[in-house]
Amino acid sequence: MSNKSTEKILFITAPVNALVEGLYQENTSIEELLNRGNFGLGTFDDLDGEMIINDGQAYQLKSDGKAYKVNPKQKTPYACVTQFEPYSFEYLYSSIELSELYAFLDRTLPSKNMVYALKIEGAFAHVRTRSVPKQDSYKPLVEVARNQPEFSFQDIEGSLIGFWTPEFLDKITVPGYHLHFLTGDQGSGGHLLECVTKEIKISIQHVSRIELALPITLDYLTTNLNRDISSDLNEAESLKK
Ligand SMILES: [Zn+2]
Questions:
Q1: Which residues place a Cβ less than 5 A from the ion ligand 1?
Q2: Terminal-to-terminal C-alpha distance of the chain
Q3: 196: CA distance to ligand 1 center in Å?
Q4: Residue 239 C-alpha to ligand 1 middle, in angstroms?
Q5: What spacing in Å lies between the alpha carbon of 233 and ligand 1's midpoint?
Q6: If you measure from the C-alpha of residue 241 to the centroid of ligand 1, how many angstroms do you get, rounded to a whole number?
Q7: Rounded to 10 degrees, what is the CA torsion of 74, 162, 151, 185?
Q8: Ligand 1 mean position to 177 CA, how many Å?
């Protein structure tokens, strides 16, 4: 473990408000993303499903409910990655709902002014996810999110991967807890909506620095990004705080 010598950075490919305004092509390659970290989440160009990166492998959780291994040439308008070397671990051998899991994390994370990478793996009694369907227009994210396929898993093993990000970063990245789910057989998953745990291990790492890329695309350069997007983002991401 070399995390003492290497400061961990959260790399964000574009401010999330650009995604909320419907900029679904910002063209950061998965290859570049994986050079910046082995762990993270996001989406793909044209909003073609949910992204999850675990142990340096990126998966595309498409709206058919299946997980596909990602080609390094594929591109993303929005993703967050870090180099994950967790140093703090918690074990829960009880059945709790997502709101209780968040309450447990609230008590466990030392400060809410820091970013944390979180991996929650093990057995779940129930998991409910969604995956956004591919778009061919600039429909705002909040409208897309109203028509998204949802998936239910019972008695399933898998990993939740994502971040806690402070509220004050809510134009840069999705605030609060943001987790994506990948089944243990790496065949399915999505953006987490609900879950009930059975036996889980929680791995935690804080991230003390953020690097934000500003895309050089015509859309990005010419879109007004000053609208207050918080209610759109809350609805689109089904945020719980
Ligand atoms: Zn998500």
A1: 191
A2: 32
A3: 18
A4: 9
A5: 11
A6: 14
A7: 80
A8: 10
Q: What is the pTM of this model?
A: 0.94
Residue 196: both structure tokens together: 């009930």
pLDDT in tens, 41-64: 999 999 999 999 999 999 999 999
Of 24, 229, 9, 208, nearest in space to 132 by CA = 24
Distance 39 CA to ligand 1 centre (A): 14
* Cα 128 to middle of ligand 1, angstroms: 13
- Cβ contacts of 205 within 8 Å, gap of 6 or more: 3, 8, 82, 84, 85, 86, 87, 88, 116, 117
pLDDT of 136: 79
Q: Read off the pLDDT of residues 134-147 as tens digits, 9 standing for 90 and up.
A: 987 778 888 888 88
d(CA 58, CA 55): 8
Tell me how far apart the alpha carbons of residues 67 and 188 are, in angstroms, rounded to a whole number: 5
Domains of the chain: 9-237 (3.30.1330.80)
Dig out the tokens for 112 from the structure. Answer: 């809410």
Structure-block tokens of residue 207? 């991230």
Cα 192 to averaged position of ligand 1 atoms, centre (Å): 7
CA 43 – ligand 1 centroid, Å? 7
Q: Which residues contact 5 (CB under 8 A, 6 or more apart)?
A: none
Instruction: Kindly give the distance from the C-alpha atom of residue 5 to the centroid of ligand 1, in angstroms, as a whole number.
Output: 31
